Amino acid sequence: MKARVFVMLKDGVLDPQGAAVQHALGGLGFEGVEGVRQGKVIELDLAKGTTEETVREMCEKLLANTVIESYRIEMA
């Protein structure tokens, strides 16, 4: 069983990496990029029977800083 956790900074939190990517894209001639938010994807290989609630606990305790980040879980 696999789980994917998508972690992004919450709206309103400054994203300096996203700003750097946006600036670099403009420097490369890509027009029309009005904003960039950068995040991360964490893939977990899980033992059979591991619940989404367990993955949620992992996110709350380690994988995401819930003060400034939000996350979304996909189980497959």
Automatic annotation (TrEMBL):
Pfam families: PurS
Listed EC numbers: 6.3.5.3
GO BP: any one term: 'de novo' IMP biosynthetic process
Catalytic reaction annotation: N(2)-formyl-N(1)-(5-phospho-beta-D-ribosyl)glycinamide + L-glutamine + ATP + H2O = 2-formamido-N(1)-(5-O-phospho-beta-D-ribosyl)acetamidine + L-glutamate + ADP + phosphate + H(+)
Compartments reported by the entry: Cytoplasm
Membrane keyword on record: no
EC top class, as a word: ligase
Superkingdom per UniProt: Bacteria
Keywords in alphabetical order: ATP-binding, Cytoplasm, Ligase, Nucleotide-binding, Purine biosynthesis
Matching InterPro entries: PurS, PurS-like_sf
Family listed: Belongs to the PurS family.
Functional description taken from the UniProt entry: Part of the phosphoribosylformylglycinamidine synthase complex involved in the purines biosynthetic pathway. Catalyzes the ATP-dependent conversion of formylglycinamide ribonucleotide (FGAR) and glutamine to yield formylglycinamidine ribonucleotide (FGAM) and glutamate. The FGAM synthase complex is composed of three subunits. PurQ produces an ammonia molecule by converting glutamine to glutamate. PurL transfers the ammonia molecule to FGAR to form FGAM in an ATP-dependent manner.
Subunit details: Part of the FGAM synthase complex composed of 1 PurL, 1 PurQ and 2 PurS subunits.
Protein name: Phosphoribosylformylglycinamidine synthase subunit PurS
Gene: purS
